[in-house]
Amino acid sequence: MLQVRALTKRYPDGTVALDDVDLDVSRGEAVVLLGANGSGKSTLLRCVTRLLEPTSGSVTFDGREVMHAEAAELRDIRRRVGVVFQHINLVDQVSVLSNVLHGQLGRDGRARQWFAPTATREARDRAMTCLQRVRVDAFAGRRADQLSGGQRQRVALARMLMQEPELVLADEPVAALDPRAGREVMDLLWRVVEEDGLTLLCTLHQLDLARNYGRRIVGLRDGRKVLDRTADELTERDTAALYDHDEPDDPDEPDQPTDPVDREPSSRVEQRPDQPARVPDLAAVERERDL
Amino acid sequence: MSRVELDDPIALAEPAAAPRRLRRPTPTTIVVTIIVAALFIHGLVGTGIDPARLLRAPERTWDFLSRAFPPSSDRIRPLGEAMLETLEMALIGTLLGAALSLPVALLAARNTSPHRIIAFAATSALTTMRAIPDLVWALIFVVSVGLGPLAGILTITIDVLAFAGRFFAERIEEVEPGPVEALRSTGATRRAVIACAIVPTCFPSFTGTTLYSLEKSVRGAVVLGLVGAGGIGVELSTAFELRRFDLALTIILLILFVVIAVERLSSTIRGRMLAG
Fold it and tell me: Which residues of chain B from 133 to 162 reach within 8 Å of chain A, CB to CB?
């Protein structure tokens, strides 16, 4: 379903975040990408649908070449790929229901579908079903910023479900949550992926979570793939090799050019979240690609 | 044991000399100071300020005050209508200006503009509109649409657009990248991302700026009448010309009341919005 070949991402400052990475994910597989902070996991996920433009290499999704896709085709590919973010990334100023409706923007971009009050009945009903599957349907009318971190990430899961994706990219989905909320979100994520027969690529930096949830574990270190085996085959030596170079929460990671500020100050942060590799400013992001 | 060893050479050495109390001014400072002082003195001398006139000022002011009290109520109805017209000019102009600010700001903000050249053009247009004072705009509009409130409304529209357009654009440029990226990742079009992520995120700030513009416009609308652009200003200038200071005082009190009322109302709403 997903073939990544020789994918490389070099930032303008010279940092190599991804170095010649190959990865194959077949339909229905759930793969955990494991690695320390700054190992290139987040960059890899962002490069798959070109939210971040890779420097070189190729990505094929369901037989379609992502790198050469024009704007409209790229939007269609993105529509089939749901993304769950570490920073959750809900639009805080609108309702939970509106946020879930945003999931279908790629499929139905009509202006009336932009906000909950004007959306079609069919869309609203489907959004409520998505919320119900992750058990936050009771909060549909609230503003998104009135929810706890765990509830917010569940709303983000509902938004992903609303998109009806085939592939799910989850980038440290529980790093900003406390352990209990984190486990609930992980359970829900794995359950919906299984129920809907989705393909999942999930980055994690906690070894225990990776062992508990992942069947296949791919390890990244310094932007290179250094490990690819089933969870059962994983040895101490394998995992030590991923983390031995320094402490996982070293703030001076070369892969984090900007913004170490955790944008979830309200949620308790038990594990220091792996900062995703961000390009320096929004303008640079926009230059990378159309909005 | 203390952290600093007793025989630590650094702890025992004399500290470095303190910095000098005053620093020698840079050549730029000297030049700027001389220019400012020269303009100040030239202005005082050139305008020929006559101390005798200043000495007569209290007497003349007393004359004004004694004629102004008690404020006259014989034209209260037309004055009330003129005040209402002023308020409506400010309201219509502000809403039009704010409504135009949104598309212009989207063109001007670097992260939403379709092209850098368009962003530059929009920003330059806003800067030009701001650089021209509102009374000058009013004079221009009085020429192009004639005397009356329409000229005032157009002036206020331009004034608000120039001010709010810039603030809207700055807010849009500060928008958090996370929600924008989340919506892009669903395959949403640029238009949908702007409508669903950028505009709602900036909306509280847009409303705050618009309310502030309204306060500014009410004050601005009062003086627009002085150049014939509608509202109560024309009544005020007539009252002064006819030396009907009692009428002038009524007008000033009316203005005071309305401006303070609008400011109070607007800051209450803004305070509530910030609170929740």
Answer: none
